[in-house]
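anyone seen this seq b4? input:
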Amino acid sequence: MADFLVLYAYTDRTKGSHGVSALVVEKGAHGLVFRRNENKMGMRGTIYSEIFLENLAVPRENLIGQEGEGFSNMLKTLSASRLFTAAQAVGLAEGAMEEALSYARRRVQFGKTISHHAPIQFMIAEMATGIEAARLLTYQTAFLFDQGEWKKVGTHAAMAKLIASDTAMKVTTDAVQIMGGYGYMKDYPVERMMRDAKLTQIYTGTNQIMKLIIGIDLVGIS
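predicted toks r here
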């Protein structure tokens, strides 16, 4: 779908990470080949395509910034992507909670709506608390981006992505549970939300990698 792509490539392998450069490539460039679109479990409203590079030549004027700045560019881009993922996960979780609440207020069991039952109230309370915690950390990370606090951004983006995606997965799973058999059916949106939420724990770096990033920063290892 994209007209332009950013590729990261070694322009000088002898310099390690300082030899990586960011390059703009336009769709239709000779050597940029698209194959099949992936058949995904969730996030089916977006397209992920296999890309192959077959003797792709990129002119020097397609450099983003200076040669060798690609790795630092990539780290900032990944942090921004993790912030986006955190915001996406918060929205998913809130939408699932709203669906579960709406259902709980309508569904009658044992002479009253299930919203009157303490176990359901406990689940809703945990949902709301997790969502608010994730939302506030996501806002804080966005503020750090706006302030250009690059030394803090990477760790905070990892934290926001970690808590928000884990919250989204738990909230959507609990929403399906609250709605019972209906929640498992495609007639209702929570089953899709649950499948979508899973990817937020995986892309822009798995949550295990997020923990590694946070832990390395906190203990002070370079």
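The beta strands are 4-10, 20-26, 32-37, 49-53, 63-64, 108-109, 112-113. The longest strand covers residues 4-10. kinda curious what u guys think
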